[in-house]
């Protein structure tokens, strides 16, 4: 079931009469499936924020429709509930972490008898119990992101939109947020993950969409897009003494009895390594040379727009 | 309704922890407190100055709180993106606007109440209680001062709704300037009307006088809610001027702010972020 679905979603902004119109989003059609972590990628100005704003009903689309859990956003906004954590949020400075969550609990009509329990649970989940009485203005960036995640989960949404949740975080902070995202997925939530940090997306997303200048350029699972089955494999082998690589039908960089070579795909690698082991060749390492998401991203954007200079 | 109250209380909580508020309040307290020194003047004149200064302070500092905190309320939420999180959780935009209005009204009223208590304490201590020997029957200070403050609450209702209206679609600085303009013009509607009448008598009904009349109708009639003259100079005024149209003034305060809020909700719900 599609938790989130957009059909030809289009947004055209009117600028001044001299500069005409600007199409920020052009016929975007995507589906996000239940329980997946979906990466939404694109350089600055690609239309990511516009899409998120439409999904949050902060912008109305010029054309097209968006559905969350089957409900049309425009036609039936009251039924629309989604968790959202903005990029670089600046939450209420003078509230403490607990007061902040209490506010969202009240907004979501969490009954007063359950309110404290829910807040305690969320604080514990995001690891912020120790800072519950500290004003938000004293929070570090990582703490702000974590309390932001807690507010996004207050109403127990099925879909959570995360806009650059790891931007500006140190490696430990990024790992903590990554773990939280995994735990949200384990709870059965669907995550719509919008990020510039492609290595993070590659690590945690199962499917991605790449957007550029409002147009959808790629959509699919990472395996399909990066071609895991057909990717090359880098292998290091130790050839038996007095033997030469050519004796085994191998070629490559050969020094001190160690051969470094590349097989063209996983199937060939399996077959050849099986044969070579039988002939006494020692396998030192096997590293699949998978194309990175960054390579795919850059190739995709450049193929569409060669003059484009990456801003990420 | 729960959403409006939650946003209102949150706004109030945020505002009362804001240093700007304490700064404004400090100035107000200093100003009202300094009127104590004026009690050394001839008692009757001194009292009038204290009342005048006190009521003006409550009014002006109420306006300052509404302006400095009010005009920032909505733009700040947009800038910090907290409004995104609120709207995403099913809160309607009109509920957000009304919540912000409620929070600001609570903040302004809390400040005015503090200043009012201070003024009444000063008056009470100078006059030596309710039965001062020089207090005449007509100079019912402890009726007219609270009454004047009560009417100021309605005046602030209008000012707060105007500040919220402007902040729902404009920048904070522009909103502050516009709110101040509405306050100034609103407090001069009587003089404004006299001027329009004078112009009409001199040049007949022109497009200019028509435009001015339109503005006169558009502006809130804050001097309807101004009881200061009565409260300060009660015993000096002719009897026909002391019959104050409380009900009309209160209705004006309520209805004007309701209409302004309705427009603010409409403007905010159409806005793209």
Mean model confidence by pLDDT of chain A? 83
Main sheet makeup of chain A: 6 strands, mixed
The domain count of chain B comes to: 1
**Mind telling me which CATH architecture of the largest domain in chain A this is?**
3-Layer(aba) Sandwich
If interface size is counted as residues with C-beta under 8 Å from the partner's C-beta, which chains form the largest one? A-B, 37 and 27 residues
Strand percentage of chain A: 25-35%
The 3D shape of chain A can be described as globular
The number of distinct structural domains of chain A comes to: 2
Might you state the CATH topology name of the largest domain in chain A?
Answer: Rossmann fold
Average of per-residue pLDDT values of chain B = 82
Helix share bin of chain B: over 70%
**Number of helical segments with 4 or more residues of chain A:** 9
CATH class annotation of the largest domain in chain A: Alpha Beta
Strand content of chain B: under 5%
| Class from helix and strand fractions of chain A | alpha/beta
- Stretches with pLDDT under 50, minimum 5 residues of chain B: none
